[in-house]
Amino acid sequence: MDVLEYQAKEWFREMGIPVLPSQRIDRPGDIKRLKIPYPVVLKSQVRVGGRGRAGGVRFVTNTIDAIAAAQTIFHLSILGELPEVLLAEAKYDADQEFYLAVVLDGAAHRPLLLGSPQGGIDVESAPELLQQVVVDQEFSPFYARRLTIKMGLQGPLIQTVSGIIEKMYQLFVQKDLDLVEINPLGVSSTGELMALDGKVTVNDRAIARHPDVAAMAEKIVQREKGRKYSLELGTWDEVEPSGNIAVLGNGAGLVMATMDLLTDAGSQPASCLNIGHGRSWNSTTPSFSDRLQQGLEFLSEQKNIQVVLVNILGTVPTPTELAPVIVSFVQRRERMGTGKSRNQTYSPRVIVRFAGADFDSAKEQLAAVQVPLVESLDQAIAQASRLAKSSGRRR
Amino acid sequence: MKLTPDSKVVIQGYCEPLMVTHAARMKAYGTNVIATISPGQSGQTLDEIPVFDLVEQAVAEFGVIDTTIILVPPYQALDAALEAIAAGIRQIVIIPAGVPPLDMVHLLRKAEATETLVVGPNSPGIIVPGKILLGTHASEFYTPGSVGIVSRSSTLTYEIASELTKAGLGQSIGVSIGSDAITGSSFLQWLQILDEDENTQAIVLVGEPGGNSEEAAARYIAETIDKPVIAYIAGRNAPPGKHWGHTGTLAAVVGRGVNVGTTQSKLTAFKEAKVPVADRPSQIPGLMKKALK
Questions:
Q1: Of A55, A90, A125, which marks where a domain is finished?
Q2: Same-domain pairing of A268 and A388
Q3: Which chain A residue has its CA at the smallest distance from B165's CA?
Q4: Would you list the DSSP string of B130-157?
Q5: Which GO cellular component terms, listed alphabetically, does the Swiss-Prot or TrEMBL entry include (chain A) (predicted)?
Q6: Contact flag A106-B211 (C-beta cutoff 8 Å)
Q7: Does A277 touch chain B (CB under 8 A)?
Q8: Per-residue pLDDT tens over the stretch A306-316
Q9: What angle do CA B24, B25, B31 make, to 5 degrees?
Q10: Contact B49/B35 with Cβ under 8 angstroms?
């Protein structure tokens, strides 16, 4: 999860990383109560890059201009994202700009320190200047100093910049981050340092153990339009909105393989739902059967989906235990459908693929509600894509 | 690597249905589960297996323990693994999904220093068909034989084992290393283990988008593995940038080109290494039989 610049800077401030005086602006009228002396920079608080080029960052020198600029930025959508708040910040004259980051590297299996003496928007134009240091063992400040030396820094900057890297690393560990980036780190003519912009990404899996981050995440979910699929129930990925078939499976690998095969067979998967494994840690999290039932309900509410291919392999609830979940889902949809127009309660056709010891008893249960059960993956794909092609599109 | 039926195994978890089910399955498969560790529940027995509060108490009772299966909630996995290392256990299987990657970084520093093999997290562990089950694999899809499967996905491992079994090709071992950004053991480690394993004649490697472990594995196979290897990569038609429930796909791979991590980059790597790649799981047995000729 990406946090916004003003939230990142609050964390920087708490860690002792120098940031400019700034103020959160919730509405254009807040500008009248600005405590920062002009000139001021107004910045759109969005999670996407390129806001400067898009016009989301403006310099203002007086209240009238500031209110007008704030109104403009509040209405400026950047890559489809409108800001909820702006950040008003003092202007800073930097002599030099550095790039600094701590990132989790999937190849080294370790955190990496990154730094470039050429920061700001130029960082990408000089990749050869980007230095890295792998934090192989328990962190100690020498790793940070090693990076500053690689960056070619000299004199007092070695200690001051490595002090900032150290604090970034502490924040990285404290908040379970995937990334913390300061770009640019402004350096004044007197050698004073200032974090002028920052990017912070919290690892999604760790959110639940940080109450402050969990509260931020909750707000984002509430803001998002349309129905969000609860992470407790699995992960839902939209593939192609114009498709008419959905995959529901246990485990990302199997779900992806199923999607590949459907595409190869000439069908267009609309979305994929991975309900995870049969492992449920306690009674407060939904059981596998609950996830299956809610997953089916969720997919039925999507108007474009006409066929759902359920592909579940080797989980703790056996096929015999899972079949009733599908049977009651089909029966419930049928009951809902009586007396209403087909449009209101259209139900997708379900095809199920289970394998293993319980196959026959599950097949018998599902036959009672005319749901086909197939053991071979290739045959399940063939049947599902035939059905998807003959169904055409709904509305 | 100690993967024989007589090796001593404990399970760290809670005496809840989840652990009860898996403990019973492992035991029924012939795994020597000597104890379960469930703080505050010692003195009970679970399916005739004694329960202890601490790993070290089980060690005091039974001597050196070879392997632990960690079945605790994800935020407690690091602590459980550190406890196991402190008690002298050198093979650890971490079952839960959702372990924060920085916990794994912490654990791997310890594991490397103590030469501990860690499988997982987000993994069903290891199965040696007909001999031992260390984890939660659906054992019914496996049959003893000489093909080793190393994978990042648990369900795909079952899928491929089942295809091989149907074609009369048994398996020497099935292991899924998990698909997280930071995993304990890597493809390279397992390729090395399978290369040295005399029961393994051929290898199936199962990959997916994210990270660079398949690319590294392809180079390693070309350079050092003489046994036949067949690869299968899921996610050929997956739109990039989706997570598919695997955050591993989002892990940064710094300074190694923009394409690293995509299915395409992995397929290219195997092509360059002259490793046959199956388009679908059901193609694997045919390719395998051809390679074994």
A1: A90
A2: yes
A3: A356
A4: TTEEEE---GGG--EEEEEEEES-HHHH
A5: cytosol; succinate-CoA ligase complex
A6: yes
A7: yes
A8: 999 999 998 88
A9: 90
A10: yes
Q: How close A201 gets to chain B, by Cα (Å)?
A: 11
**Which residues is A155 bridged to in the sheet?**
none
Q: Determine the Cα–Cα distance for residues A389 and A387; give it in Å rounded to an integer.
A: 5
Pull the structure tokens for residue B59. 């060690």
Q: Same domain for A103 and A131?
A: yes
Do A316 and B21 count as a contact with CB atoms less than 8 A apart?
yes
Count of CB contacts below 8 A, A vs B? 189
Q: Are residues A65 and A203 in the same domain?
A: no
Distances (CA, A) of A195 to A44, A126, B249: 17, 20, 30
Q: Which residues pair with B132 in a beta bridge?
A: B128
Q: Does residue A374 sit within a domain?
A: yes
> Are A69 and A136 members of one domain?
no
Give the CATH number, domain containing residue A369.
3.40.50.261
**Domain CATH for A159:** 3.30.470.20
Q: What domains can you pick out in chain B, each with its CATH number?
A: 1-122 (3.40.50.720), 138-292 (3.40.50.261)
Question: Quick one: tokens of A85?
Answer: 């708040």
Q: Do A316 and B18 touch (CB under 8 A)?
A: yes
- Answer whether residue A223 is part of any domain: no
Question: Cβ distance A45 to A86 under 8 Å?
Answer: yes
98-157 of A, contacting B, C-beta below 8 A: 103-107, 109-112, 114, 127, 130, 132, 136-138
Q: Are residues A380 and A250 in the same domain?
A: yes
Domain-located, residue A216:
no
CA–CA distances in Å: residue A169 to residues A96, B41, B255:
23, 39, 20
* Token digits of residue A158: 């070695």
Residue type, A188: S
Cross-chain Cβ contact A203/B154 below 8 Å: no
Residue at A151 is within a domain: yes
Q: Strand A269-274 relative to strand A245-249: parallel, antiparallel, unpaired? A: parallel
Amino acid in the structure at residue B69: I
Which tokens is A364 given?
């018998």
Q: What is the pLDDT of residue A228?
A: 55
Which amino acid, B71? L
In this predicted structure, what is the pLDDT of residue A302? 86
Let me know if B243 is a catalytic residue: no
Alpha carbon A33 to its chain's center: 35
Interface list for A 295-324 with B (CB within 8 A): 313-316
User: What's the pLDDT score for residue A65?
Assistant: 96
- List alpha helices for A140-266, DSSP H: 141-150, 156-174, 211-223, 252-264
Q: Give the C-alpha separation, A249 to A311, whole Å.
A: 5
Q: What is the pLDDT of residues B197-251, one digit of tens each?
A: 999 999 999 999 888 889 999 999 999 999 999 999 999 988 765 544 443 333 4
Residue type for position B62: F
pLDDT tens for residues A251-291? 889 999 999 999 999 999 999 999 988 666 666 778 899 99
* Strands B277-278 vs B202-207: parallel, antiparallel or unpaired: unpaired
Which domain covers residue A42, as residue numbers? 21-90
**A218 neighbors A193 (Cβ within 8 angstroms):** no
What is the distance in angstroms between the Cα of B252 and the nearest Cα belonging to chain A? 5
Nearest beta carbon to residue B179 from set A252, A264, A316? A252
Residues in chain A: 395
Q: Searching chain B, which residue's CA lies closest to the CA of residue A262? A: B237
One domain, residues A308 and A382? yes
Q: Which of residues A40, A57, A90 is at a domain's end?
A: A90
